[in-house]
Amino acid sequence: MNVPFLIAKRYFFSRKKRNIISIISNIAMIGVAVGSAALIIVLSVFNGLEDLIREIYSSFDPDLKISALQGKSFETDTEFMNRIRRTPGVAVVSEVIEDNALLRYNDRQMVVKVKGVSENFFQQNEIDSSVVEGSSELIVDGMYRALIGRGVQYQLSIRPNNQFIPLQFLYPRNTTFNPLNPEGSFNSLNISPAGIFAIERQYDDSYVFVPLNFASELLEYGSRRTALEIKVAEGFRIEEVKRSLQQVLGEEFKVQNSDEQHTSLLRAVKVEKLFVFITFAFILGIASLNIFFSLSMLVIDKKKDIAILASMGATAATIRNIFLLEGALVALIGAAYGLTLGMLVCNLQQNFGLVSMGMSTSVVEAYPVKMEVTDFLLTGAAIIIITLLVSIRPARKAAGMSVTENV
């Protein structure tokens, strides 16, 4: 029989009288409940945002991306490409040339990212499903076409259905600049708009997709490529194919999965989540100070009980454990209510979207949430540690009381 727990439970559930001690205990329990519920909700929102980022970029990013470890481009040939295609798990290999260029349309101009892609690009990419106007076909009847981001369209007032006004791309030639003939220092190619895509602002405001040969001629890349994008075959794990490709290519190349292509953004979300956890844990600590005050007052109120227990042979450790368990009951019951409330709110948000993003241009209407077991475990661990810290001093004070002074 656990005597300290039985006595602590009796102190906690005693309803004989309502005094300031029980009021402070209830306030502490409510504070822990609200704090733990808020922590679970906020952490779940960060988890949802992290998944939302992956979902948004999944329509643009390949399963794996091969690029040069140093420099922005690398040479390719038939043997090099065949080595990659023969790697187990590689289903599609798309060649990519990407660089900045000046885009003119009518009397407007802006710097854009030109992304030249091979014909099999849309076999592994879902950008064609994000086309909001026109078509995603980059070659029509042997004529080159461009797929333009919605932000670029707005900036230049491009009309995809108007084939009489072409897009003009300018790129510096690899020659000495001639001030007498500045236009001769740039490659200039025209192309007609095919359609408009809308994925995410980062891409919509800067990207223009063109056929690979068009980009190669404009940018003078020849057989060089800035990246190779890989679609992993069904039944193969992305990480296994990544390791195989890295062994085939050697240390001169880097092979990145989808998360690694956005390392800085995802890391920023994780760092923000960490700081939010620390901040809310601090708030929980402040709320738990009420446990300290209620236990301190309980120790004073139960001086005679402590003396009786000590005279009956209870050790200092037993008396200390009574008050440690009393603080644990207050905190854990409050945490149980709080975690249940947080789970309920998150479920309601998932199913009914109670809180809107508040922006008409949002990818999703309501804040995304995703509950993870690790968040509940971390929250529980934080509450246990905080409760132990605030309860240990009153418990020690009770264990150190003199029997003769309290009889």
TrEMBL record:
<comment type="similarity">
    <text>Belongs to the ABC-4 integral membrane protein family. LolC/E subfamily.</text>
</comment>
<keyword id="KW-0472">Membrane</keyword>
<dbReference type="Pfam" id="PF02687">
    <property type="entry name" value="FtsX"/>
</dbReference>
<feature type="domain" description="ABC3 transporter permease C-terminal">
    <location>
        <begin position="278"/>
        <end position="402"/>
    </location>
</feature>
<protein>
    <submittedName>
        <fullName>Lipoprotein-releasing system permease protein</fullName>
    </submittedName>
</protein>
<dbReference type="InterPro" id="IPR051447">
    <property type="entry name" value="Lipoprotein-release_system"/>
</dbReference>
<dbReference type="Pfam" id="PF12704">
    <property type="entry name" value="MacB_PCD"/>
</dbReference>
<keyword id="KW-1133">Transmembrane helix</keyword>
<feature type="domain" description="MacB-like periplasmic core">
    <location>
        <begin position="27"/>
        <end position="247"/>
    </location>
</feature>
<feature type="transmembrane region" description="Helical">
    <location>
        <begin position="321"/>
        <end position="345"/>
    </location>
</feature>
<dbReference type="InterPro" id="IPR003838">
    <property type="entry name" value="ABC3_permease_C"/>
</dbReference>
<keyword id="KW-0812">Transmembrane</keyword>
<dbReference type="GO" id="GO:0098797">
    <property type="term" value="C:plasma membrane protein complex"/>
</dbReference>
<feature type="transmembrane region" description="Helical">
    <location>
        <begin position="274"/>
        <end position="300"/>
    </location>
</feature>
<feature type="transmembrane region" description="Helical">
    <location>
        <begin position="376"/>
        <end position="392"/>
    </location>
</feature>
<dbReference type="InterPro" id="IPR025857">
    <property type="entry name" value="MacB_PCD"/>
</dbReference>
<keyword id="KW-1003">Cell membrane</keyword>
<feature type="transmembrane region" description="Helical">
    <location>
        <begin position="20"/>
        <end position="46"/>
    </location>
</feature>
<keyword id="KW-0449">Lipoprotein</keyword>
<dbReference type="GO" id="GO:0044874">
    <property type="term" value="P:lipoprotein localization to outer membrane"/>
</dbReference>
